Amino acid sequence: MVDCRFGEFFRKKYLKVLFPIGSFFPSQSGGPNNTIYWMTKALFKKGINSIIITTNEGLISEHNIELNIWKSSDYGDVIYQDTMIHMLPLKALYRTAKELKNANVIHLTSIFYPLSWLTAIINRCYYKKPVVWSPRGELDGPALIYSSYKKKPVIFIIRAFLADKVTFHATCKEEVESIKSIFGNHTKTCLIQNYLPVQSDVFELKKSDHILYLGRIHPKKAIENLVEGFEMATKNISENFNLVIAGNFENAYGLMLQKMVIEKKLQKRILFVGHVEGDSKMKLLKYAKCLILPSHSENFGNVVIEALEYGTPVIASKGTPWEILNEKNAGIWSKNDGLSLSKAMTTIINMNENSYEEICRNANKLVKDHFDVDSNIENWIDLYKSLN
To answer: Is 124 helix (H, G, I), strand (E, B) or coil?
Structure first.
């Protein structure tokens, strides 16, 4: 007992991890908001304190977050800096620069967000603390196509000045390959998948007549293929089934999708519900007949494990690292063309009751067996300790 207490005290006193991040829970503007939140909570339980510096991106009044004030919590010390222009997070950068001296490890999220690469430069020049850097899929080939003129200078700076001093974190082997193809085969990488806190009482077998896409509305997500696939599937599924598309659609791609739906005369069966979070998000995931992630590429996809935990089967494209869905009979790992997605939707929707119940139970079991953050947080602790 004495040794255990001393070990926890030692880690808490001497191992502090600094997380400068563009947005953070309860903001739901991106998957890493929740991933880092779940991580830091699990780290705190093990006696490791996190210092989280973020902006007000994605916060709404209901979150009741005070800005520019440090808050101590069960996931560490956090401050949300008031930021007028998200891509110019000057207050967050200033605060991060002040905290670098207090951290043992710096964990960056996102390659191209200025807070990340500017922090890496300041650290390289003045502190030389060990750095873990999570690209979160930003180095995948399809992702690099968009705004490439802005991304190339950042990649050049990282390759020339920072890459050899960083351990890059990947969530799948494909992301490891992407990182090494850009920064060189000598680049240090670690492979740790995303985890979430597994709940014991959220499994649900009674589903509604809706198929769900939930996530960012962006060309990388190949949602137009999903619309094409759903149109084909309507010939073989009950007319009661709708496709629900959840995410902020107020952008050029979202408007294109809406126009596409109107042209196909599917307005009554394909529903755009906008950004969702909290109970609304939970209910969509919990009661969906299946979740579909049709992306051209994805390094992980937190929404997949969130859906699986509720016992909701998932159809994920072969541009995502979700082959395990086929292996564990928890969904379908499919090509993302319209015809393939149509066949996958039709297969799940038209399953008999026993087969569908089996796939739902397998989905929930998959999360419990492989993605529980508390059972796997030692992977992160071992990495952080190895860098000190």
So the answer is: helix
Q: How many CB atoms sit inside 10 A of residue 380's CB?
A: 24
Roughly what angle, to the nearest 10 degrees, separates helices 31-45 and 302-309? 70
* Torsion of Cα atoms, 224 then 230 then 232 then 237, to 10°: 180
Query: What pLDDT is attached to residue 14?
Result: 65
Contact 312, 320 (CB under 8 A): no
SS percent in the chain: helix, strand, coil, step 5: 45, 20, 35
Which of 335, 333, 331 lies closest to 366 in space, CA to CA?
331
**φ and ψ at 291, to 5 degrees?**
-100, 145
Predicted confidence at residue 199, as pLDDT, reads 86
DSSP string of 224-245?
Answer: HHHHHHHHHHTTTS-TT-EEEE
> Measured between alpha carbons, how far apart are the two ends of the chain, in Å?
25
Q: Which domains does the chain show, CATH number per domain?
A: 2-196+373-386 (3.40.50.2000), 210-370 (3.40.50.2000)
DSSP-derived 3-state class of residue 329: coil
Residues sharing a CB contact under 8 Å with residue 35, sequence separation 6 or more, in sequence order:
194, 196, 302
User: Can the peptide bond before residue 114 be classed as cis, meaning omega within 30 degrees of 0?
Assistant: no
Per-residue pLDDT reduced to its tens digit, 235-276: 999 999 999 999 999 999 999 999 999 999 999 999 999 999
pLDDT at 6 (0 to 100) = 39
Give the span between the Cα atoms of 92 and 50, in whole angstroms. 16
Length of the chain: 388
Cβ atoms 29, 57 nearer than 8 A: yes
Q: Write out pLDDT tens, residues 201-246.
A: 899 999 999 999 999 999 999 999 999 999 999 999 999 999 999 9
DSSP string, 139-204: TSHHHHTTTHHHHHHHHHHIIIIIGGGEEEEESSHHHHHHHHHHH-TT-EEEE----B---SS---
Q: What is the pTM of this model?
A: 0.89
DSSP code of residue 132: E
- Please give the Cα distance from 325 to 302 (Å, whole number): 14
